[in-house]
Amino acid sequence: MNDSKIKTYSIKTFGCQANIADSNTISGVLEALGLEEAEKIIGSNDDETFYNTAISTDVLIMNTCSVRQKSEDKVYGLGKMLKLAEKDARKKPFIVMAGCMVGSVTGERQRYAFEVLKKKTPWVDVYINPSQIMNIPEILLKNSLLSDWAVQKFDSAKVLSKQDNPTHAFVNISYGCDNFCTFCVVPYSRGKEVSRSENDILKEIRHFAGRGIKEITLCGQNVNSWGLSMTKKMEIRTGSDQKIPFTSLLKKIHNINEIEKIGFISSNPFDFTNDLVETLKLPKISRYLHIAVQSGNNTVLKNMNRRHTVEDFINLIDRIKGAKPNIELGTDIIVGFPGETREQFLDTVRLFEKINFNVAYISMYSPRKGTPAERFFKDDVPLKEKKWRHAYLTSVWKKYKNGI
Ligand code: SF4
């Protein structure tokens, strides 16, 4: 029985699969404490649904993303709506801000001062960064929202993330990133790369398998380097013959009878070993592979601090297609990175004409506060040119994606 002051929760998730997986873990924590997910109260649009649901729940988690300014601006906008709820004297939930906006201003690698975020979000009650999810019970207790009894019987080791899909689950295998691509906030917002133990991962997957889950997607900012020490992962290069722990993890999951399909996101070309290429041949490994290339020009890649060249990438894709001929490829691209000339951009176009990506997330570069690209490079590609490059590359991608 839940004898605490709070009975219901709601989570608003922004951003990538890592955030979705974290939100599932937060749901697992809150449900282990006896809370129930609040029913969605549908409005005429998404914002109205968010607002209606938020004001009828006890605890609202805003699991934020920092990758794009647009995503942060959305959080500020929804926060303003929540302030209206206070003015209306209607019920304002206890608001916990989680995710990368908090990670960016706390921990060892801060991008800017915590005070700046606090000033912009006066409607937030408590902030937790992505490594503090298991502290939620204590935080709620400190704010007199939970009973001692509920917290005492909480056992973080027994928390299982909640999965809405009855046949598919996302499983985080690592957190954070040590690669420091110059445009990216993740090494700051999610901190150092930390791998979960093999034991914990397999235990969670076996539990899901027992509940009817047939498909698993392993998540991490850079899954290839799972289980590697910092020195080792920096040594590994595209096409290296070294064995990596990630392939052994994939094989162990492959041996779980009930699991029929295994995918993983994200992979980077710079540490995609031959061992991993071979492992793709296993029948349960998904034929969709997401592998971020970011640019088709070597100078731009260097400025992005990517540890691969365009030639490495093309060669890798050839070997992947050799190992798994029916592979479907997805990638991430940034257009208009500082200093990218029209000719350098056209190298990316040529790469798209060559590779035929099935999925492409194409973004226009926007400087993110505190990143090396923002600090050391001038955002010198005009917005109009960025928009043109975005539209042009999108049209090329559409034309070539089915191997035309
Ligand atoms: S590999 Fe690069 S782009 Fe990916 S999360 Fe790490 S720093 Fe960001």
UniProtKB/TrEMBL annotation:
Top-level division of the source organism's lineage: Bacteria
Domain MTTase N-terminal residue range list: 7-145
Cofactor: [4Fe-4S] cluster
UniProt keyword terms in alphabetical order: 4Fe-4S, Iron, Iron-sulfur, Metal-binding, S-adenosyl-L-methionine, Transferase
CC annotations in GO: cytosol
Radical SAM core domain span: 163-404
One GO MF term attached to the UniProt entry: metal ion binding
Pfam families xrefs: Radical_SAM, UPF0004
Protein name stated in the entry: Uncharacterized protein
